[in-house]
Amino acid sequence: xxxxxxxxxxxxxxxxxxxxxxxxxxxxxxxxxxxxxxxxxxxxxxxxxxxxxxxxxxxxxxxxxxxxxxxxxxxxxxxxxxxxxxxxxxxxxxxxxxxxxxxxxxxxxxxxxxxxxxxxxxxxxxxxxxxxxxxxxxxxxxxxxxxxxxxxxxxxxxxxxxxxxxxxxxxxxxxxxxxxxxxxxxxxxxxxxxxxxxxxxxxxxxxxxxxxxxxxxxxxxxxxxxxxxxxxxxxxxxxxxxxxxxxxxxxxxxxxxxxx
Length: 260
Fold this sequence. Notes:
By secondary structure, the protein is α+β, with helices and mostly antiparallel strands. It is built from 5 helices and 12 strands. A hairpin with a 3-residue loop joins strand 2 (about 70-80) and strand 3 (about 85-90). Helix 4 runs antiparallel to helix 5. The protein is globular.
């Protein structure tokens, strides 16, 4: 009899605790996420210096390592509601000195991206060197492969997924189903929850959420970008290829950066 009473008391306590946790658990359908983009400048520069690089370039690289931080950090925000997001870069007020990769688009943030999951369309305001384009197209479909790896980011338990985009870029993403919006930084979307972390291991770049603020988001915070020359993915690619036709391998790198 005492065993039965003990069992009943334990089950009652367990159910009460479970219900209490479920009532207090937050599944935000709107809010603002702050991300940091981190670029390993040392690794990026080293990768692009081959054995034929002369002493001048090696000395410049050594000076750069002595005077500059290894990682360039850029900040951005993602405002989200049930079926819309806007990714907005924060102005870079602490640009690194020196000329190594100073104009490389991969070490900048060139996109303001509005995504409408209800229509399957996005609008991106892209800065391509001295020009601004307004890119409208369908949301990129990414063939994610889910894994069992778990990582905590900004207080949320996230699951890892892997993919290949743009034919050759290996992507690692971490998403949480506790934020039931299929968004993420830049144009990384398509997972069953919000993407809080992205790594491009071979490009030496990451995006990770630092804070997630669960709050109502006003319509003025999720506005469609409106400035720029209208275009789509295909036309923009043709424009960039034409402008950079004499750049060799550097053209491929630039096109890759502008296509993220």
